Amino acid sequence: MYAQLVETGAKRLKTMEEMSPEEREFQEKVDAETKIEPKNWMPEGYRKTLVRQISQHAHSEVVGMLPEGNWVTRAPTLKRKLQLMAKIQDEAGHGLYLYSAMETLGADRDEEIEKLHQGKAKYSSIFNYPTLNWADMGAVGWLVDGAAIVNQVVLQRTSYGPYSRAMVRICKEESFHQRQGYQILLDMMREGTEEQKAMVQDAINRLWWPSLMMFGPHDDESPNSQQSMAWKIKRKSNDELRQMFIDQTVPQLEFLGCTAPDPDLKFNEETGHYDFGEIDWQEFYDVLKGNGPCNRERINTRKKAIDEGAWVREAAVAYAKKQKQRAQAA
Ligand code: BYC
């Protein structure tokens, strides 16, 4: 019934009656679960919201390679090194599908990446935390990819066709990532020394709360949710997804024989869900403002990679031009 935000002092969604015929037809299509495709008419706000979310999602995949890249040379065995490299390459691939999905909305990849480098575009807060020991590779795979999957499984049903289709493949790969992360922790807990077991608990203690922050602010503090839910860009709210993640993760935590750094975490017999403590939102917003432990390091590393890779891109373009000229001459 309500589907587009209008300014009325307090923001509220436009009613169907208040919409233009094009907006109404668009909303009816969304309500009927028909996917929106690149050449279809769409409200400018819908396009902008998608460019914002998909570009941030792509930036997260690419920046998300850095905390793991830190451990490639120090992986404990050849098998672990190969698995970690495969995972990191998958994240690069996810970034590429997502940038391509974003380009179908008329956005320019270089411009969006430049916004990231200037600190104008966000990426997931979680990647601003350091990865201090090998158990962090397990905890990132299990908790961070685990949280990402909960969010992304639902995004497979997002209303924009190219985004939804990109999510299908990404989710398959994320499942492997989550599994390999959990296996690292399981092996350390089953076969490790006391010191290695302590490393696992330490990694969980540091990454638990930041993983819960990945789902974004509470629903009533989330400025984009109401409109994104009406347009079915988002299919479940930030708080619903966070609860789903907790409910599926706590039994896995118990199976590991570890604990969460949350004294309020407890199964609630009445609701059938786990109750949990309040997130430190001050920390969340500080990280978003660029003041997390690794924000500057992450952006500087990305800028350096772009600068140092310029010759590769130039060579690829020159080669493509030459090939085209040859094909035209033949
Ligand atoms: N971090 O109104 P809200 C991965 C921002 S990577 C930073 O709720 P929305 C992986 C939000 O952008 C997976 N910023 O926003 C890769 C907004 O700011 P703007 C990454 C956050 O968009 C490598 C403001 O806060 N997944 O899997 O409706 C290795 C207000 O929030 C965060 C995705 O990107 C945050 N955690 O909902 C391993 C999923 N939370 O833009 C693993 C796609 C909120 O208005 N994205 N903000 O200035 C989404 O589903 C949604 O964008 C969010 C936020 C649920 C994240």
UniProtKB/TrEMBL annotation:
It is an enzyme of class 1 (oxidoreductase). Keywords: Oxidoreductase. The keyword Transmembrane does not apply. One of its GO terms (biological process) is phenylacetate catabolic process. One of its GO terms (cellular component) is cytosol. One of its GO terms (molecular function) is phenylacetyl-CoA 1,2-epoxidase activity. Its EC number is 1.14.13.149. The keyword Oxidoreductase applies. This is 1,2-phenylacetyl-CoA epoxidase subunit A. The gene is paaA.
